[in-house]
Amino acid sequence: MSTEEKKTGRACGEQWWTTDIIEMRPGMIRLRGYAIEELIGRVSFPAMIWLMLRGELPSEEQADLLGIALSAAVDHGPQAPSIAIARMAATCGVGINSAMASAINVLGDVHGGAGEQALEFFGGIAAAMDGGATLRQAVRDRLDHFFATEKGYVPGLGHRFHPVDPRAPRLLDVTRDFSARGVVAGRFADIAEAVEAEVERRKGKKIPLNIDGATAVIYGELGFPPPLTRGLFVLSRSVGILAHAWEQSQRRERNKGPLPREWLWAYEGTPARGLE
Amino acid sequence: MSTEEKKTGRACGEQWWTTDIIEMRPGMIRLRGYAIEELIGRVSFPAMIWLMLRGELPSEEQADLLGIALSAAVDHGPQAPSIAIARMAATCGVGINSAMASAINVLGDVHGGAGEQALEFFGGIAAAMDGGATLRQAVRDRLDHFFATEKGYVPGLGHRFHPVDPRAPRLLDVTRDFSARGVVAGRFADIAEAVEAEVERRKGKKIPLNIDGATAVIYGELGFPPPLTRGLFVLSRSVGILAHAWEQSQRRERNKGPLPREWLWAYEGTPARGLE
Amino acid sequence: MSTEEKKTGRACGEQWWTTDIIEMRPGMIRLRGYAIEELIGRVSFPAMIWLMLRGELPSEEQADLLGIALSAAVDHGPQAPSIAIARMAATCGVGINSAMASAINVLGDVHGGAGEQALEFFGGIAAAMDGGATLRQAVRDRLDHFFATEKGYVPGLGHRFHPVDPRAPRLLDVTRDFSARGVVAGRFADIAEAVEAEVERRKGKKIPLNIDGATAVIYGELGFPPPLTRGLFVLSRSVGILAHAWEQSQRRERNKGPLPREWLWAYEGTPARGLE
Amino acid sequence: MSTEEKKTGRACGEQWWTTDIIEMRPGMIRLRGYAIEELIGRVSFPAMIWLMLRGELPSEEQADLLGIALSAAVDHGPQAPSIAIARMAATCGVGINSAMASAINVLGDVHGGAGEQALEFFGGIAAAMDGGATLRQAVRDRLDHFFATEKGYVPGLGHRFHPVDPRAPRLLDVTRDFSARGVVAGRFADIAEAVEAEVERRKGKKIPLNIDGATAVIYGELGFPPPLTRGLFVLSRSVGILAHAWEQSQRRERNKGPLPREWLWAYEGTPARGLE
């Protein structure tokens, strides 16, 4: 048998799918090196999430803090497109998995990406501090750059509905508690508050931290890279998506549209015409 | 090299994915045996759809009739969950393919399955006729069975919004034209009209054929199996889904919810309470 | 203003979207009646999942057991279509939310429904016991019915890959522990073991409980209705889906196909032919 | 009744969903101003697609050319992630619409965006020509810029599998035919060929136009904006996705994985270890 044949055989097929996450043989499942039957009952669900994503088990306190961030963002009601979609999909004759998929699918750059953007923003400030800048200077430089070249709202601050998002100050308090107990450094909490203060100084009014900024603080403290935090948000919001899809599915509505059934939409296009 | 090794090599991998649809080699693409460069410019888009799904090319007239059915169901406005979802998704920061996917995903048993159910219903009557029953008797037997054991509306009849769906009589007329020209037999048109008449006789009022019944007639005339007609409906409605996603994407709204922004939803759950 | 106008105004719009899950006003978010800032930091992530789905908070032990079931099913490797799809999608230029959605979407009746079916099966036996049957008789009757009228494998038993699924006996042991501590009744564990024993008696060989049967036991003990357990499986498997999508996204592959790139698929359709 | 109340009533709800595409009243459906019953049977499926997306009916020849481009890209076999996903999804117990949705969802920037990128590239050259540059100069400037600042392959050229993609030269020939008959100007065909020639001059070898470049030529000739061409590609590839999902669904496989069932994947992660 030639070496080339070996390379194109079963070994090559198996090599095409490689992973560091899971090892299996008949009767054996290992996640990140741990036998599944050892993990079951000994690690919490947030710890399992952490292990799967990071490759190592967190401390119990780290897992607790992750669970807190995951719990905070589960739902924001049916005005959120994702929740409305889950409910509408549940009336269309698809499984609950598909209702969830249609909803999760829209947690994109705009609907699901704000936390990622906030962590990128805070992380840039942290990197400047690693390079020797003071917190104050790093925040000022980043905001100078932001107002000079970027548009819109400072990532992680402000909310179009809540004057103060009740989740954000509570999450900051919790982070401070974990920091006081030595679980995390508190650095991202410092950064977020410094950004908030500096924006207030410049704008003359407070634009408070929002849920995306607050969860970004926690994910940053725990060492998650920004793009992965979108995935964490998906895990979190999936809970609300499931709850709403489930509630709706109990109601026997069919093909639920966005408006009361007797209402239509406004047509503003070309008036009635014939084919020449 | 053992025979077993041969079976688990590259040949085995390639055998895992088999298809009758497409053959490829570098510089060569054949669909159902035809070189792609021969098909391009010589067969219409509906003919290509037919070839891919059925394995043989249709006559030009058959392709025309398929195209007519596909064109008839492209849109029914943003009160349809699929269209609303496409528009909402387009504001959430995902690609137009993902906005389309979230929408297409909800064309399930309830939202997308009515044509399939109508064709099953009409097809059962056709089968009874193949077994020797007259049209009249086959329709009566099927409706006897329906009213005795099944629930809800007779498949293919009635519409919750349109007293008469303007698409249905037009599609029947077109089918009659194609039948007169010998393209199709007209049998499913006969069946649909006989069902409509018998239901009117029993109910004392006309419940007219709807779009799902009318397209089921055409797909039945053309020999498509019922479950495949849901796929044809997806191809058709995808056009409206794309048009609405595209229109919405030009409007710069962000995270469009189902209701005007200043409206919320009605909360009817447990009143405010504390954690003991 | 007429009463009718009132009904078609803002109140009617808000009434179109009703929920028992979440209440919001500017600066206020309540989930199932609890202020979000009270929940944050005081309930675990599994407890939050329970609250959202069931409307009441579980005991700490109930939440722990739910978390154990959720942790057990997070991954079964890239031979599972959902995991393979997540990895392939991650190479196609879509966000991680969309890679997850394409994968979650396939957790349908076959891929994601086994736990639901197992709980329906065990629940039927529990209902017979509520009606006065002994465990032994209820199991025998249900299996008589199954072998007489249904097809395939007994729900919750057997695995095409694992002779004994290492997750199942461990989950049963854990359930017994929680039962010994009075958290759950242990009734579904009894039922599952009785089914396993009776099938062994009839078949002459043991077909051991699988992961779907074992998680069905736990969800049954905790009082979840069968169709909701598919949603719980989605939450669980989403963790593995995210982990694999994330790992794959770090690898810079583009448009990853199912087989090594130099392999094709086997074409078995119509040989090459020309257009007449 | 106050003005404010009027604004927040039914009119406001209906205004929240506005569209130029479809107008409906009971018994009436108009698309872009045309009564649906007038369109049915009188416009081809590609013409309907054009009308829905652009707002006006195309000429018959324009519709034909659109149909040709749509037909050319329907399938590229199961090594494409979208097709493999459609087939795998079809074995997981979801409807054909959901199998299609999981597949369409991955036609993202990498898998579905090449045509869009090619049309952006060619369109930039066309814009330079509108500004007074010669074809030759505009192509050189654009390529200078590309090689100086962008990475990877020139959009629309080259294929990792086909030395010459058999679809591309055929589509160019067809475009030239339509140009000779005055249907289109032929400008994008000129641009594509000039780009191909200039790249050959610089690289010393021909990197031929691919399917994405060739369909971009046609969509450019027909006046479609680049981001909409991704939507057109979705409509086109949906045909292959449906054909493969349908073929697979006839085969009774369950949970089809990416590799032959007896093969696993290669685990390359942390070796087996215990929980301390």
Report low-confidence residues of chain A grouped into runs of 5 or more. Answer: 1-5
Estimate the strand proportion of chain A. Answer: 5-15%
Structural class assignment of chain A = mainly alpha
Instruction: Report strand order across the widest sheet of chain A.
Output: 2-3-4
How would you spell out the order of helices and strands of chain A?
Answer: HHEEEEHHHHHHHHHHHE
**Alpha plus pi helix count of chain A:** 13
Distance between the termini of chain A: 73 Å
Count of extended strands of chain A: 5
Tell me the overall shape of chain A. globular
Biggest interface goes to:
A-C, 92 and 92 residues
Helix content of chain A: 55-70%
How much is the average pLDDT of chain A? 95
Radius of gyration of chain A: 24 Å
Largest sheet of chain A: 3 strands, antiparallel
Give a verbal description of the structure.
4 copies of one chain form a homotetramer. The first copy, chain A, is mainly α. Helix content of chain A is 57%, strand content 5%. Chain A is built from 13 helices and 5 strands. In chain A, strands 2-3-4 form a 3-stranded antiparallel sheet. In chain A, helix 5 crosses helix 13, helix 7 packs across helix 13 and helix 9 crosses helix 11. The longest helix of chain A is centred in the last third of the chain and has 24 residues. The N terminus of chain A is likely disordered. Chains in contact: A-B, A-C, A-D, B-C, B-D, C-D. At the A-C interface, helix 2, strand 3, helix 3, helix 4 and helix 5 of A face helix 2, strand 3, helix 3, helix 4 and helix 5 of C. Strand 1 of chain A pairs parallel with strand 5 of chain D.
